[in-house]
Amino acid sequence: MIQTLGLVLAGGLARRMGGGDKPLKTIGGVTILDRVLARLRPQCGSMILNANGDPSRFASAGLPVVADDVPDFAGPLAGILAGLDWAAAHLPDVSYIASVPGDCPFLPRDLVARLHAARQTANIALACARSGEWRHPVVALWPVALRDDLRHAVTVEGLRKIEVWTARHGVSLADWPTEPVDPFFNVNTPEDVAAADRIAAQHPDA
After folding, report:
1. In 38-114, where do the E strands start and end?
2. What pLDDT, on the 0 to 100 scale, is given for residue 71?
3. Is residue 112 a contact partner of residue 7, using CB atoms and an 8 Å limit?
4. Phi, psi (degrees; rounded to nearest 5) at 201
5. Using CA of residue 41, residue 151, residue 53, residue 24, what is the dihedral sign?
6. In a designed cystine with 10, which of 51, 101, 192, 205 is the match (CB 3.0 to 4.6 A)?
7. Is the omega angle on the peptide bond into residue 180 within 30 degrees of 0, that is, cis?
8. For the chain, what is the domain count?
9. Are the C-beta atoms of 123 and 172 separated by less than 8 Å?
10. CATH number for the domain including 148?
């Protein structure tokens, strides 16, 4: 197993949810964050959260909470950069981080292994998930060796779109089916919370 740091991106503004922290919403009586951690923890050697503001609201996770050091909520690339910088400073033996959004309650249990397999097969440094015809650029593997390049793109170029940056280096794809449950279903609205509750009830192993 390749040493991989798991990074949960929990720093979104949740505008469509009316504010607050999406990962702390409950699905079937369990927070989305707890569901994410239960899926990702067994796949990674270590875990961290990326979030801005008061870190104590995530204290129950028992994980380091790493804030962006790029100002003005620069989006997920800033969170990924924060994770890469943390890995370089604290876990020098780790060469990859695996990022997931904090609002996906049904993540695959083989996510990290299949992302690594995709990049190794394609001989490309980056890998991201796809379900059906949809790419999920935030569900991805990132080599720590590219953190300086990413920092330049975010801070000097002002780049905000993940797929613009990954296209520069090439990105391999790991595929999942969308049935019976799309493993990358994400919760953005109150209606999504209700839909996720139904999915969790109908597919308890999803």
Report:
1. 46-50, 65-66, 96-101
2. 82
3. no
4. -70, -40
5. negative
6. 51
7. yes
8. 1
9. no
10. 3.90.550.10
| 8-35: average pLDDT | 80
Q: How far apart are CA 150 and CA 81, in angstroms?
A: 7
Q: Hunting for tokens 């875990």 — which residue is that?
A: 47
Question: What mean pLDDT is predicted for residues 164-171?
Answer: 96
The yes-or-no verdict on residue 160 having pLDDT over 80 is yes
Give the largest CA-CA distance in the chain. Answer: 47
| Ramachandran region, residue 122 (left: φ > 0; alpha: ψ -120 to 50; beta: rest) | alpha
Is residue 183 within 8 A of residue 108, CB to CB? The reply is: yes
pLDDT beyond 60 at 52: yes
Residue 134 forms beta bridges with which residues?
131
Interval 98-149: pLDDT, tens = 999 999 999 999 999 999 999 999 999 999 999 999 999 999 999 999 999 9
Range of the domain at 126: 4-202
> What pLDDT sits at residue 17?
44
The residue type found at 175 is D
**CA separation, residue 15 to residues 19, 38, 70 (Å):** 5, 26, 20
Quick check: 114 and 92 in contact, CB under 8 A? no
- Dihedral sign (CA 147, 75, 113, 24): positive
